[in-house]
């Protein structure tokens, strides 16, 4: 059954990097309803009462916590979109393709009443050739039935430890391609070192004409320099070769050489632009098209490419010839309330938070994730372990066929990325007695990409039948277990985080364990590295009892919470690789009853000095001995914690000073809070840090704003409060998404705010010189025994956050440009450019 699935993947995946001018995104203007409805796919069907939505979209907005497994919506949702595309740009003979980045779980698709086909599997892209059904420049009706019911497809089987939010949760677009075009490019380096790189490029071809065509296949490797005075670009290598391309499927290939390549690494994630062109300069004169096509055919694919070489050895991991310990986290793609339907801005946010936490490695648990997140990994220098959908289960032949399909679709999509260094060809925590099929999956990965090793996470102790190239195991043994095999290995999971809502004693216990375990990882030369479980708290199908109120389907093991608010252990990871001096107190300083008798500090300092209410109480160096879970000596951890024992709690202010050679280089403060006095409102850093200089997100794309409310005292100290609720409201230009009112968790509440759709905004702003303000109000609605607090407001001015659309729905810039936010690194500058490029796609006519 391997053949048909590979063929499907070929059709699906080759069209992802073509010139943006030939592509039109279908993100806004959709109509949606839950449940079945007959004939909904017919153009004449009346959808007047349906909900207006934009993509990315979840079938239903779910609360961020709930108590029953059955609460998630698992069923059918219907989507309809009327759109026109290309118009005069369309040339007779061109092919038109409809592309979906991902739909959870099954998608059945119709265009203009005609059934196109289906796709099963919720994490990988798929396409349809719609040339015969598409009406260029006229209104087309696209209809999609999405079914998120339980079905026989990975990762379904057992009760899995994550959630399957349904919907069209990634992007959709239509694309024009010439009658002879390229797809599935693959660029790799059979020879590479610091002085020279040989780049081999292959691409598949599709000739939809009736006869052969003589074409020139060429490649161009460009380097762009971004400086204070703008950018300059130059061609650093190029090659070309002639081919006669016969009707149907074919292949072209060539090689080019580059002297002294700039190498991609976590510190310097240098990316070239690789431009592939197929030029058929002679006039096409076939029986089928002689009266229609009288011009040359040209197809262009562009992709970013990073030069690097790496090896997994028994002595560890090596990048560009240098030994490097892989340290990072597992990442789930879901967000509270939004489900999997996260905007590209939120995808970038996760990548930035991982990078700032000191990670150089991330495991995509347990499925292929958004192209946008991987784009950010390429730009930021985050190496990636990408795996197929799965979780401790392997099913029948149909289930396995669909797993093979997912593997092919994943690899063909992402095999050109410098960030991807390892394929998870085995489902997570696979049972070893399915080893024959698991070995086949490894072989299939090698066929699709012979340049990268294949792996797949095993549960701790499930050792034997090692068919994979790199052994990865989820190690919850409390010690570092070395697999009994002469192969490279890494730890794919270990306990790593704890919610800020858990008591200080629990925080410190987890801190000491993580410090102990990471020291073992750093001390073991043969261990390539580790990824902690987990980057962000997440909703789960498995019953968890971690939060106040009982089982609420939330796993609280992240270094950030569900809403990406930082948990205390985030700073411990950050300290291990931070370039600038930093210090962070891990405890809270709430009250005597909550204080566990010791205080822990994370930092990269020579010493830390503690001041309590202005007087020095202790100064000490980093811990040399760990006491928990066993007693031993730190050997290799870059920056062990500072543990202060014998500290007596005293209400007031405690200060940690980071001392480097006796000088204060960084400071952290905590204070015992007083009575609640006000609500502080902030916009998430995905707006404050990833905002590009000129281009802002628009309201034809579902790009919600994260708004964080904190209950503070008169001095601005966060108040520990878990009973009160904050009620959010938005002015006419927006709406609140999520739990509202929101019960405070240790004094904090977070919601998403969505801008009104384009039609409504156009009506609201008609005749206005400036866009209608988007004002968010937060009010404390219930707090037994608490004083009255004035509601807080924040103005999310669309002139700052979005384009202002005129009466024709065309974007124009606000008269006053906002000041550019502080940029902390060249990595973020690169991400800002990526943001601008991405946004330009949505604004293309």
Cα-based radius of gyration, to the nearest Å: 27 Å
Q: CATH topology of the largest domain, what is it called?
A: TIM Barrel
Second CATH tier, the architecture of the largest domain? Alpha-Beta Barrel
The termini sit apart by: 42 Å
Instruction: Report low-confidence residues grouped into runs of 5 or more.
Output: 1-20, 283-294, 544-550, 692-699, 799-823
Number of helices: 11
Mean pLDDT over the full residue set = 86
3D structure, described in words:
There is one protein chain. 15% of the residues lie in helices and 35% in strands. Helix 2 (344-356) runs antiparallel to helix 11 (826-842), helix 3 packs antiparallel against helix 11 and helix 4 runs parallel beside helix 5. It is α+β, with helices and mostly antiparallel strands. It has 11 helices and 50 strands. The strands form 13 sheets. It has a 9-stranded parallel β-sheet. The chain folds into 5 domains: 2-175, Jelly Rolls (Sandwich); 195-262 and 272-305, Immunoglobulin-like (Sandwich); 318-584, Glycosidases (TIM Barrel, Alpha-Beta Barrel); 585-671, Sandwich (Immunoglobulin-like), CATH 2.60.40.10; 678-842, Immunoglobulin-like (Sandwich), CATH 2.60.40.10.
